[in-house]
Design goal:
It contains eleven helices and eleven strands. With about 350 residues, it is an alpha+beta fold. The longest helix has 20 residues.
Length: about 350
């Protein structure tokens, strides 16, 4: 991991031009389409955050300073809000929301409120795990537009009181569900008890097969567990679409804390288990063809992601090889996605 000192020097060396945050307005779509890494410094009372990390919804004032891809130095007052469940208790830093633009200093308010996902630990493995989960979102963007966009950050989180050492890590901001829905001509559908068999069949197949590809069983539609729903604005009688998120319990990421539900009877998260319901063979075949078409682009994305070390890249491609061998075989496709699909 880059040292804190080197990171701070980077911010100074590039000497970006400062922009009046009052007049700066982000295009949220462009913000998430841009693939460049943003160097960000957040200053807040770290001691208070650590002390109150189990209090969901508590907000902390902070300052935000980031360098845009155009070299602009963007400063603003923000709030950090505690969120999350498992990672809030397990990780050194609780999951946070970033609320851009205070009433006194609207600045980059147009970014609204976004989830911030950062490293669970400051170790090398913690860094690689964060980058692997970020990569999952980018891979899913290749498969379908009904997917969350994310923007990678190189973060320095400083303690405003000077009592804690600065934290130097990677993180990413996640697109708001309302923006995802809007660009798909949909709106958010807030129904927490939706039967997955009553959602859009093709999109549900894409979601279930993608979760199988990355070895993730930590999701559920009926319980709204790590999934969101959107519905067509033009035809509200259409079945809703499922959008997945939160992939840190997947075999692809393979964290030291990811343990599958014992009821699933799999040894570990690297063992794939299909959690979709049965669908017609033609639909499954059409969906697996989407994945097969993007195979080269997926492997290229892994190879070109320079922040991953060579060992991690090799492991990810080896893990995906098993999935692509499965969908290449008509008999395996029927066995995994039809004969062994969920019955309840």
């Amino acid at each position: 991991m880059k040292s804190i000192v080197c990171s701070l020097l980077l911010l100074i060396i590039f000497a970006p031009r400062e922009v009046n945050s009052q007049n700066t307005k982000f295009d949220r779509d462009k913000f998430f389409i841009d693939t460049s890494i943003i160097n960000v410094q957040i200053t807040t009372d770290l001691a208070k955050i650590f002390k109150e990390k189990n209090k969901i919804g508590v907000r902390f004032p902070a300052s935000f300073s980031g360098i845009s891809s155009e070299g602009e130095n963007l400063k603003d007052s923000i709030f950090l809000e505690i969120r999350g469940h498992f990672r809030r208790d397990y990780c050194y830093m609780p999951p946070l929301r970033v609320i851009f633009g205070s009433k006194k200093d609207p600045g980059i308010k147009s970014l609204g409120t976004l989830k911030l996902v950062d490293q669970c630990t400051t170790s090398e493995s913690g860094q690689q795990n964060l980058l692997k989960e970020y990569l999952i979102y980018k891979i899913y963007n290749l498969i379908t537009d009904m997917s969350f966009r994310v923007r990678l950050l190189h973060l320095i989180i400083s303690d405003s009181a000077g009592r804690k050492k600065p934290i130097d890590e990677y993180g990413y901001l996640m697109e708001d569900i309302k923006d995802l829905a809007k660009r798909n001509k949909c709106k958010e559908y807030k129904n927490t008890k939706e039967d997955p068999r009553l959602t859009n069949s093709r999109q549900m197949a894409i979601v279930a097969i993608f979760e199988y590809m990355i070895g993730n069983t930590d999701w559920g539609v009926y319980s709204s567990h790590n999934t969101r729903l959107i519905r067509s604005k033009e035809d509200t009688l259409q079945a809703p679409y499922v959008v997945p998120y939160d992939f840190d319990f997947s075999g692809f990421v393979n964290t030291d804390y990811s343990i599958p539900d014992e009821k699933l009877q799999i040894a570990n998260v690297r063992e794939r288990l299909y959690r979709g319901f049965p669908k017609p063979l033609q639909e499954i075949t059409e969906v697996t063809a989407i994945f097969q078409k993007e195979k080269d682009a997926i492997y290229q994305m892994i190879d070109q992601f320079d922040l991953l070390n060579s060992k991690t890249k090799k492991d990810l491609k080896n893990y995906l090889n098993g999935f692509f061998e499965t969908i290449k075989s008509p008999e395996e496709v029927k066995r995994v996605f039809i004969y062994n699909a969920r019955s309840e």
